[in-house]
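Minutes, project check-in
Item: structure for the 316-residue chain
Input as provided by the requester:
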Amino acid sequence: MYVKHFTVPVDDNVSLARIELRDARYPFFVTLNLQAYRDEDVIEQGVEIRHDESGIVALDRFASAAVLLRGRGHWLSQFPSDYKREATQAEERLGPGIKILDSKIGVRATRFRMPSFLVSRGQPAQEEQGEVLGGSLAWSGSFQLAFEIDHRTRLRMLSGINPAGGRYHLANGAVFTTPKMLWSRSGQGKGQVSRNFHRWARKYGIRVGEQPRRTLLNNWEATHMNFDEAKIVSLFDGAAEIGVETFLLDDGWFGNRHPRDNDRSRLADWQVNQRKLPHGLSYLAHEAKARGLRFGICIEPEMVNLRSDLYERQPG
């Protein structure tokens, strides 16, 4: 049941509204947070959960946001993904029942689907006209986005952590905070929604996002994992010639006993491959610097291949 609400200014551009609720019978409390970014036309929504029970409470489902839209004829744009086909767009008209977009893989949860979407009313989303609502869940783990057209043609959207395998044990006095859900609405089509999110991300979502980024060349498309020292150095000259400022050496530079020549081995063994790079990374860094380039490498600490020294030493 409702307890109270209040709004506090965060700064000249941002204000926070808090709506406090509690269970009618049990000492269980929920606070709804809605933080508005005026200039960016974005709302950040989240939930805080706490209790005063004597023991631990198991939370099995805790959405970040639940939004209800009236009207008829809602269209959903989602962004299915896969390797080399990231964030492709698919659009459909929502019918009666529940449409669920989710990920249950825990890590790299956006590999097959992005936790972002567009909803338009009356017609498919247009670039510069029509009513469009954009949503994006700021969460890198398993997620669930549910869209239900009810018997009165209203659209209910429920978004947050995927309840499958998502149980959380909340101790007395502790506060559980859901991931944030970002919303932006436009009466001038999906282009304006995109620009709103871009402005928000540059100012609030990305570190020093309003500063210019260095131009970068990555060798992946040129070489994949099939390269040697001379081939990488040869790319430095072209990079410097076109004004690139940073060169990034991608996947394939590591592994000796199980060479990293494909994506089935050696991930987690961060030793320089002596066959490909006999003079090591420092040689490449020196050659890049001599051409006025900064030098970086790709590393994926979150994954381990079964064919790797690390896994063989510490299986499971």
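Outcome recorded: The radius of gyration is 24 Å.
No further action items on this chain.
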